[in-house]
Amino acid sequence: MTGRVRLLPSGPGALLVEVPSAADVIALREALAASAPDGVVELVPAARTLLVVVDPASLPVDTAANWVRRVAESPDDARAAAASGSHGPAVVVEVDYRGDDLADTADLLGLSPEALVGRHVATEWRVAFIGFAPGFAYLMADDWPFDVPRLDVARTRVPAGAVGLAAGFSGAYPRESPGGWRLVGRTDATLWDPRADPPALLAPGRTVRFRAVGP
Amino acid sequence: MTALRVEAAGSVLVQDLGRPGLAHLGVAGSGALDRGALALANRLVGNPDDAAGLEVVLGGFRAVLDADAWVAVAGAWGPMHVGGRPAWPYRAHRVRAGEVLELGTAERGLRYLLAVRGGIDEPPVLGSRSRDTLAGLGPEPVRAGRVLRVGAEPAASVPLLDEDAAYPPPAGPVTLGLLPGPRADWVTDVALAALYESPWRLSASADRIGARLEGPALARAVVDELPSEPTVAGGIQVTGAGVPTVLLADRPVTGGYPVVAIVEPASLDRLAQARPGQELRFRHAR
Questions:
Q1: Same structural domain for residues A78 and A96?
Q2: Which among A7, A12, A6, A8 is positioned nearest to A53, based on CA atoms?
Q3: What is the pLDDT along chain A (215 residues), one digit of tens a residue?
Q4: Cβ neighbours of residue B136 under 8 Å, at least 6 residues apart?
């Protein structure tokens, strides 16, 4: 990542770090999490950026910037070694693949519905970041080649547990909400529970596998 | 256990100092919009700064306590009555069991922060009793008829003050300090200068999620779509049409509009007290 990381100002308590790709965000987040000094409040990933949130009383943002630069500029293999094993075993999410958009989406991609489901369950996904709603994980994978357009008209009501595709991501709705992702199935997994620790089943960095269930 | 029975409520929310550190799970910080006012009201009745109180927008609030209790109001400035007697904001008051506590229409500022000695004891969610209006987390909005439990007496006594700690919000223009934002180069230099030089007005649509600003359109220098980025409280995002909005406590944790400047944390309490239509001005934060 050397030379390709940009540090952007985000106030006295945060630093926005821009990297070339979503995969770089995941890698940098892991490496930073493995070496975080006191005073780091949290690391918030998004599509191409990572927000490093600090308590400026114990870790000034300039000091945090030096730490981020040092980690980002260390050799890729050293960074990977420092972060290895930090994302734990895969979370398995059981899905009934009878989503309303499965056939149309498979058609768009030039696949049979069975082939699309086969690719979806064969893929090892990573949680890149959470957005849109508490616990709504954006999942990505190096070997997922599909770029799926969002629906032209978003649904006003998507049920909780709906599993969908949009752009290069897969995701699942933690609760009923409006949404424009193409729905390929549905899960009964509890994706968000404020009383659980952690409250999000699919937290950033976790590895996720889908398993087909039902008829 | 002391309880507060709400008899009249317009827009009233339970708020403490929020739930920091959970944005990576999609949860914003939330918490009182005027954090300093909640901390002050709490101190006036001997509570820790982060005890939960009520955030009352504009007024129209009436409640009865079923036991003697200490209360204090900070933030907005307006007519306050305890047992029918006029009472000053920014001071601790002893309310007797059965007496009515009333907050009339604010004359200055927008949000009263009401602290009750012992704090409002609603069940915490993710470590906080704050209502997040976007995510729908925390205690339900407070309506007339709701009975709120008051927590146990804190260790600290009610402090004796020999002078008022009253700083009512200004009636005229409100000046806010700005820091550089991550995407300052996504608007033109002319637009960035206009942000500092133009008078702005707070939109009537401003809420706890964001405060839209009315003024000149800020021309975008980059019109590309920005992949969603994590947000901070105070971030000023600019839409494709050039409309700036200050992101606040209940904001989405990621957003796809470029953030061109950031309202410094010390100025956010003042913004929380600005009323719709009130003039806002920006200066460079030190």
A1: no
A2: A12
A3: 545 899 999 999 999 999 999 989 999 999 999 999 999 999 999 999 999 999 999 999 999 999 999 999 887 666 666 555 556 789 999 999 999 999 999 999 999 999 999 999 999 999 999 988 999 999 999 999 999 999 999 999 999 999 999 999 999 999 999 999 999 999 999 999 999 988 999 999 999 999 999 87
A4: none
Count of the separate structural domains present in chain A? 2
Which chain B residues are within 8 Å of A15, Cβ to Cβ?
A: none
Residue B170 burial class via C-beta count within 10 angstroms: exposed 0-12, middle 13-18, buried 19 and up: middle
What is the Cα gyration radius of chain A? 18
Whether residues A74 and A107 fall in one domain: no
Q: Rounded distance, CA A78 to CA B165, Å?
A: 55
Q: What is the CATH number of the domain that holds A144?
A: 2.40.100.10
Strand partners, A137: A130
- Beta-strand relationship, A155-158 and B147-149: unpaired
Domain that holds residue A202: 91-213
Size of interface A-B (CB pairs under 8 A): 102
Q: How far apart are CA A99 and CA A171, in angstroms?
A: 13
Measure the CA–CA gap between B145 and A110, rounded to whole angstroms. Answer: 59
Are A47 and B27 a contacting pair at CB < 8 A? no
Cis amide bond preceding A37, omega within 30: no
C-alpha to C-alpha distance for A83 and A97, rounded to whole angstroms: 34
Distance of CA B49 to the CA centre of its chain: 15
Class of CATH domain B174-284: mainly beta
A112 & A61 share domain: no
Query: How far from each other are the two terminal CA atoms of chain B, in whole angstroms?
Result: 47
Every domain range in chain B assigned CATH 2.40.100.10: 174-284
- The arrangement of strands across the sheet holding B85-87 comes to B85-87, B80-82, B100-103, B61-65, B3-8, B147-149
Answer yes or no: are the C-beta atoms of A202 and A131 closer than 8 Å. Answer: no
**Alpha-carbon gap: A21 to the closest alpha carbon of chain B (Å):** 11
ipTM above 0.90, yes or no: yes
CA–CA distance, A84 with A64 (Å, rounded to integer):
22
d(CA A151, CA A166): 9
Of B23, B264, B265, the CB nearest to A44: B23
| Residues in B touching A48 (Cβ below 8 Å) | 227, 229
| Helix, strand, coil % over all residues of chain B, rounded to 5 | 10, 35, 55
CA–CA separation, B253 vs B232, rounded Å? 8
